[in-house]
Amino acid sequence: EFYEAIQIQPNHAKAHIYLSNFQYILGNTSESKFHSSKALELEPRDPLITSLYSMNLIYEGKFSMAVQILETNLKSFPGDDQTITTLRTAYHLTEQYDSAFATWKKYFSIKGDKASDSVLTNGYREAGYHKALQRLAEFYISQPKKRPWVIATLYTRAGMKEKAIEWLYKAYEEHDLNMPYLKVDPIFNFLKNDARYKDLLKKINLQPDDL
C-alpha cells in the first residue's frame, strides 16, 4: 500500500517516511534510508517527518544527531507530541537523564496530566531519573485501564529487565501495534541476549539479529 501510494503520488512525503520506518523494522536499511531522505527532502520542516527521520537515526545509533534535529524542531513546534516523545528517547539514550526528565514533564504539562507529573516528580525526588520511571510504571499499573506497552517501555528505561519482559508479553497478548519496534528501538538493547526477547520477536515473525 505504501508503494501504491508513492506510485500514485511520488512526492507523498508521509508515505515515504512511513515506508522508511517500516523497512527499517524489516531490516532493509538501505531502502529505509532512501525513503527517509526523500521524505525529508520533500518536507524539511514538517514536525512529523523530522521526528520520524530522527527515529530512524536513533535506530542507526546516531543519538546525538537525532538530539540536534529534535531540539531544533522543538523550538519551531514547542507543543508537538511526536517531537517531544522522540526527543525524550534521544536524551535517554545519550544518558542526558535530567533533560529526559524535563521532557517527560513538558509532555505531561502539555497534556494537562497532573497526576502523572506528580508521580514522576516524586519518584525523581526519591531516587532520581530511573526511580521516577519505575514509579510512573507502577502508577499506570494501578489504573483501571492498563497500557502494557507504555508500562513495558517505562520498566525498560528504568533498567528493570524482568518487569520489562513481563509487560512486553502482556503487550504482545493485546496485539499492541508498537510491538514491531521491539526489534529496532535501542532502549531494548539490554534485553537482546535474553531468550524471552528472542521468543517475542519470533512470535511477531521478526528474526533476532543473531539468527
Question: Any overview of this molecule?
Answer:
- By secondary structure, this protein is mainly alpha-helical.
- It is 71% helix and 0% strand.
- The protein has helices at 2-8, 13-26, 29-42, 47-59, 63-76, 81-93, 97-111, 114-127, 129-141, 148-157, 161-173, 195-203.
- The longest helix is centred in the middle third of the chain and has 15 residues, at 97-111.
Strand content: under 5%
Helix-and-strand structural type = mainly alpha
* Cα end-to-end separation: 29 Å
Report helical residue fraction.
over 70%
Query: Biggest sheet, in brief?
Result: none
DSSP strand tally? 0
| Low-pLDDT ranges | none
Radius of gyration: 17 Å
Give the SSE order as H and E letters.
HHHHHHHHHHHH
Number of helices: 12
Tertiary shape: globular
| Mean pLDDT over the residues | 96
Please supply descriptive tags for the structure shown above.
211 residues, mainly alpha, 12 helices
Give a short summary of the structure:
The protein is mainly alpha-helical and 211 residues long. The protein is built from 12 helices and no strands.
How are the secondary structure elements laid out?
Elements: H1 2-8, H2 13-26, H3 29-42, H4 47-59, H5 63-76, H6 81-93, H7 97-111, H8 114-127, H9 129-141, H10 148-157, H11 161-173, H12 195-203
Helix pairs in contact: 1-2, 2-3, 2-4, 3-4, 4-5, 4-6, 5-6, 6-7, 7-8, 8-9, 9-10, 10-11
